[in-house]
Structures are given as C-alpha cells and as structure tokens.
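To: structure desk
From: M.T.
Subject: fold request, one chain
Message: Could you run this one when you get a chance? Sequence is below, nothing fancy, just the single chain.
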Amino acid sequence: MVKRTSLVVAAALGVGLLGSFAVAQPAAERKPAAPPAASPARPSAAPAAVEVPKPDSAAKYLGAAMTGPNYTVAPTTRSDGVMRIFRVDTPYGQYEFDGVEFTKLRLREIAATAALEKMSKSEEWAKSFGNAAVSPLKFGASFIVNPAEAINRSASGISNMFDRVDASFQAQKSDRDSTANSLLGISDAQRRLAFQLDMDPYTDFQPLQNRLQEMSRIMAGGQLTVRAGLAAVTGGIGMGISAATSLEGAKETLRDKTAAQVIVEVRKMLTSLGVPDELVTRLVENQNFTPSFLLVMSRALVQLNAQNTTAFIERAAEANSYGVAYFHWRRADLLAARSAELGGLTAFVPVAGHAVNVTRTGTVVALFPLDDLAWAAAPRRTFLAANAELRRRSPNSKAVFATTGLVTPRATAEITKLGWQIVKVKATR
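Reply: Done. Structure tokens follow.
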C-alpha cells in the first residue's frame, strides 16, 4: 500500500491568490526600489479549457538522488498542476512525496536512516553496546545518590539548565522534549546526532525518528559519542542540507537548545512583528510544525520585516500536515531572499484566508515555490478567482506571479491574458 505524504498545495494556497491590498504604507526609512514591470489585471473573455499535466522523468528533477542505500524512486513523476509527485520504494514501505524539494528532504532522511542502521551494526557500536545497554539504570541510580554530578552530565551547564526550566514553563504544550528526556540528556544526544547527519531532530519520518531515539538513548549514557559512532559509517557524516539549515546559525541553535528554548525564541520573534499572542500560541502548538520549521520560518519573516505578518501566520497556523508546514516555511524563506529583486515586499495582504504581498509602489506579488504550473483545473480556478477579486478591489493594480518552477506555455498564455506578469525566481537551495 502506498503511504501518502501529501503537501496538499491546494490547502496551502487557498482558493485565491490576491485580494484586498489596501494597507498602511511602509515606514519612511525603507529605500525605494523599482518593482518588476507589470500590467493592470484585466478580464479574460473566454478562458481556455483546462490542461492535463504531463508525466515526466523523475531523474530530470532528482538527478543522482534517484537511488540510495535503502530506496529507489520510480522513473516517472506525475504532476497535479503545481507540484511533482514522486513514488519511492523503501524497506519501510512505499511512499509518495509531493514536491521536488520536499522529496529531496525525505530522501536524505531515508538515507540517514540507513546510515544509523549501519552504525548500529558497526564494530565500534558493538564494543560500546555492552556497557551502554545498562547506562540508563546506572544513570538513574547516580542521579539519586549524587544529583549534582548527574545533572552536570545531562546538561550543557548550570546556566543552560536554568534557562531550560524557565523555557519549558513558558512553552507549555509546544515543548517537544519530554521533561524526563531533557533532564537525562536523551534529547541532547538526539539533537547532536541529528546535527551530525544534517537532519531535523524533530522529523516526523517515523523510521528515522525511531532510530534517532533508540541510538540517542544509548549515546546519552556516555558510552559512545556521536562522532565516534558515525566515524564507523562511510559517508555517515554530512548527509546533506535539511530544513534545519536554511538560515545562518539555525543548525547550532537546534543542536544546543531544547524544543522549549527554540519555541521561546520563536515567540519573541513573532511578537516583535506584531503577531498576537493567541495566534502565536496556535502556531507553535500545531504539531505539524517542528521546532526546526518554526525557527527558520520565523527568522525569515524577521528578515523580511513586512507589515501585517499576522496574515501570513494566520494561514500557516492552519497547516494540516508536515508537508504543508514545510511549504509555508520554505515560502517564508523565499520571500525574505527574493524581496529586493521583486521591488521590496513591504506588507502581507489577506484574501480568503491567504496572504500575498504588496511592494513599495503598490504592485501585488504572489510568490510561491512551485515545481511547475500547468493550466490544470485547480490553478485555473485559483487564477480566475484571484483575478476577479483583484479587478473588483483595485482595477488598475499591477499583478506579478513569481515562482521558482516552470510555467507551461499554455499556462503562460492564459495568465498573461489576465494581465499578469510572470517572473521566474531562483530557489533558495
């Protein structure tokens, strides 16, 4: 049976791309920049019938990542009109992953699982396992007999331990590290292990999560260090860049801080952008967002520093899957990276539960990290509804659709008829 890991891009995009963009003008200190040339949106007398997305070679998108130590990607990828869908066979079952970048992330996680399995069978592991197997009991006993020594062994320092206690209290439901595991160092070991693999320590890919938890429990006893264990695995260190590494310092933060500490940082950043406390709570308690996703998304939004970030967070907080959460943080990362070249994205504007951007000169920009856009049923409905709302609210506004992916000739023609300019932007990875 195919295990479905759907990005549900339609859910992420909503029913419309554009809408009310009458927002306060940005602060005067923002430097002007010329936006992309675009024409006012206009009606299309008779939109063409829908286009059927074509299958394509998976290797065209994944290259050498088509096969790994414990997976094989099917040779053909299909499209739903916005994202490519890849079928992957693994020892853990058959999966379908939506989106090129999300699939690459999952393939790295699958390969990392193989590295951990190989590590657990290595000679180095065998030499350490005997003592490590009883380390939790020894640790528990020493904790009772000599609490100060035990605490020092499980934490990175007294000041950090105080920080953790305070952070755990503030984070409440959003703390992904259990109190017991955090005190005993298991969460520390799991984060360090994930750091060496360049993986998200809070991934929802269960085979990898299980391996991380099993092996970190033994490593927490101090019998086998992360680096020593991985050194026994050829290619085990540096499995690739994951969602946790998109912004400077994110990897180190995720390695050194507990989930609760990360959530406190996220809260502070979003509050500084004017997002209401109750909305921040709703976001950080959405378990589809890992602390890693929340951290990099929030840092990107701070970098963007657009007005009405609340509109973006309202939509992101509704993410109903890991894949949709990934889409939102990747979009935030892209908005921050490409704002200047798109004319300066100074504000978010909400429309039908979604948020797009307005530039300094009033151009509406809808930027999304799609794989390839075809004039299929869902995109067609989205553009027609968006265009109608744009014309109704501000007939003379200029509209830009920006994306990292390809746009088919048919979709290009239809979108252009509506008066939109299409801009191709470079992905952030």
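Reply (cont.): The radius of gyration is 24 Å. Let me know if you need anything else for the meeting.
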